[in-house]
Design brief:
The protein is mainly beta. 11% of the residues lie in helices and 46% in strands. The chain is built from one helix and nine strands. The strands form two sheets. Strands 2, 4, 5, 6 and 8 form a five-stranded antiparallel beta sheet that branches.
Length: 161
């Protein structure tokens, strides 16, 4: 179901852009550039009990990346049980601008939906080519977890914010 929702959102944006209509948030310099659906992700496998860790996602140099939605899949360390309760704090940083996306760690559910129901961001985030997107995760439980974070969106070729 998530793939159908993401595909429908992406198709609507692509079709509108093909007709010269862009969402209000779409950057002026990116209009008319080639786009392609893409997913960037990072895994904490495992994130130790009561631990905090930072993973980096390197944005490729051939394109900017526009995040439309985000998904977190959390399982036990054996990958046998999907865990619906996610006691995880998260902080995101765009190193291209040097900015954090929040002033402190926030609960993962504020940023991430599930594979079945992705969290669509109120305003999509555009990351410049050759930058790093940092994800800091803190496990609030005294049990190790496998965490898989994915950012769904599209690449914008030939654009630098």
């Amino acid at each position: 179901m998530a793939d159908n929702n993401n595909a429908a959102v992406f198709a609507a944006i692509r079709d509108g852009m093909a007709g010269g209509r862009y969402p209000w948030w779409y950057p002026e310099g990116a209009k008319g550039k080639a786009i392609d659906y893409f997913v960037y992700g990072t895994d904490f496998t495992p994130l130790a009990l009561s631990a905090t860790s930072v993973n980096n996602i390197n944005i490729s140099g051939d394109s900017a990346f526009c995040i439309l939605s985000a998904v977190l899949v959390e399982t036990d360390t054996g990958n046998t049980t999907l865990l619906p309760f996610r006691p995880i704090l998260v902080r995101l940083q765009d190193t291209g601008s040097g900015r954090y996306l929040s002033n402190h760690q926030v609960h993962a559910d504020n940023w991430f939906g599930t594979a079945e129901e992705p969290k669509y961001w109120d305003v999509p985030k555009i990351l410049a080519p050759n930058t790093t997107f940092n994800l800091e995760a803190q496990n609030l439980e005294a049990v190790a977890r496998n965490l898989r974070f994915d950012f769904h969106g599209f690449k914008i070729f030939g654009f630098r914010p």
